[in-house]
Amino acid sequence: MSIFLKGQPPLESKKGNSDLPLPVRHTLDNPADYITETGLTDAVDMAIILGQPLLLTGEAGTGKTLLAYVVGNELGLETYKFETKSTSAARDLFYLYDTVGRFQAKQTGNEGINPVDYLTYNALGKAILQTLKKDEVNDWLPQARKEEARSDQFTRDSRREADWQRRSIVLIDEIDKAPRDFPNDILNEIENMYFKIPELGNKSFVAAAALRPLVFITSNSEKHLPDAFLRRCIFYNIDFPKADIMKKIIERRVGRYVTDSKTFLNKAVGLFYELREPKAGLQKKPATAELLGWIIALKEMNKDQADPLSRVNEEKILSSLSVLIKNTEDIAQAKKAVVQWLRKN
């Protein structure tokens, strides 16, 4: 039976039901809870010393994206994220220009509007600009538009002079999603930390050497990156954590759900790794984030039990697999594996 759904409509219309629990998934990515292996910290050190981007590969759920925020949190640096898409062009990493809006302004006779105001700076553009003195770039920052006011706007009035000049971190997330030419098209810009804006007469900005941004790049290795791009990076592959490290990750991130039962922790990790084994026959192996969510779901569904993975809960355990397993064929395979596992445990 569902915890929240009773199979009947409410007696009267309800809005904003306060009885629903607060979602906890968004609390799992706290940089302070990140466990960093020695090889990874060494790779970060080398990237900082040499001023080269750190390219991170590895299975989904190994913490590639979160690392940039971990380093930013520890070093006191702001992190700007660029979410790579299949349509991303090299320019998008630095800025966007509202060509259509500018054209419409001209058509309606607003010739006096500053073309700079049609700029939106993106991750690496922001990071490079902030290495320079604000009076050097202020004329090239757009005026904030009241109708588009956002807390993340990067405009002439977005920050006081005293808070402006700083070093920051840029995260280029999932670069393998970008078109094939994207990595080659940003080679010189990332190596020399500069960019140009053709729409403003090729105005160029070069990062101050002492404040060069730190660049982190993630890839799920879905396609090969160009050799010329790889030569300019520090490379590190994050292996999927072994069971003993996974237990530490669980205790660090969702410890309150396992503190009352080491048996539950051991069982959850044991079953999780069994589902990742080739003999389980799954097309998509469950990852760390899915395991954490599954532990939370099992405990919330069985609050009165120290060990929700006991055999008497077989029906609930099988229904909870939608947290771990993400396609129809794998659900059937996983259910078989779980039933066999419960018979043995």
UniProtKB/TrEMBL annotation:
Region Disordered, residue ranges: 1-24
Span of domain AAA+ ATPase: 50-244
Domain of life: Bacteria
UniProt cross-references to Pfam families, sorted A to Z: AAA
A molecular-function term among this protein's GO annotations: ATP hydrolysis activity
Protein name as annotated: ATPase family associated with various cellular activities (AAA)
